[in-house]
Amino acid sequence: MTDFDPTPSEDDINTVRQRWSENTDTFGRVYNTLLGITEPTSYPDIAEIADCSPNAAKKHLERLAEMGIGRADRQSRPARYERNEGYLEWQDASRLADELTVDEIIDRVHQLEDRREEFEQRFETTDPSAVSVFERDDHDAIHERMNAISDWQALDRDIRRYELARQLAQNDGHLLPA
């Protein structure tokens, strides 16, 4: 039996990066890089990841910011960019609206709201941020509470996402009725 190493070798990484660079145009690489970063990042750093010139990266990042896919902090020197989480949420809700019927979305929201009510009863509050995870002395109990609060917060995000999907589905892809 061979040993499994979850970290790919440098050669494997370079092969994947080379294939990505050859098969994806500059705009696509900048777009993918922007969606993959998790904090504001300078355009030269994005250019390095996207394997393009800083000028090309900045041009495409400006376009992505104009489209609402990214956000620009032009006060920073050099300018920094980050993904627009609202865009990703809208994209996901739009996918749900396309894949599910309005009734299926409403049913899912009811299921999620029932789960949220269980958390609210368990912790005797409607706000997960009001719960102290450190009320216990036991490490396992603290860890379990942290996981529960994290699940509750994810549940709240899912409810918002499905509600947005419902609005899109009911209004032919628009947030507001015509």
Explained architecture:
By secondary structure, the protein is mainly alpha-helical. It is built from seven helices and three strands; from the N terminus they run H-H-E-H-H-E-E-H-H-H. The chain has helices at 10-23, 26-36, 43-50, 54-66, 85-99, 102-123, 139-170; strands at 41-42, 70-73, 80-83. Strands 1-3-2 form a three-stranded antiparallel β-sheet. Strand 2 and strand 3 (80-83) form a beta hairpin. Helix 3 (43-50) crosses helix 4 (54-66). The chain is extended, with a radius of gyration of 21 Å. The relative contact order is 0.09.
Uncertain stretches of 5 or more adjacent residues: none
Radius of gyration: 21 Å
**Number of H- or I-type helical stretches:** 7
What strand order characterises the main sheet? 1-3-2
Order of helices and strands: HHEHHEEHHH
**How far do the termini sit from each other?**
63 Å
Shape: extended
Mean pLDDT comes to 90
From the helix content, strand content and strand pairing, which structural class follows? mainly alpha
Kindly list the characteristics that best describe this protein.
extended, 178 residues, 3-stranded antiparallel β-sheet, mainly alpha
Produce the secondary structure layout.
Elements: H1 10-23, H2 26-36, E1 41-42, H3 43-50, H4 54-66, E2 70-73, E3 80-83, H5 85-99, H6 102-123, H7 139-170
Antiparallel strand pairs: 1-3, 2-3
Helix pairs in contact: 2-3, 2-4, 3-4, 5-7, 6-7
Provide a concise account of the structure shown.
This protein is mainly alpha-helical. 65% of the residues lie in helices and 6% in strands.
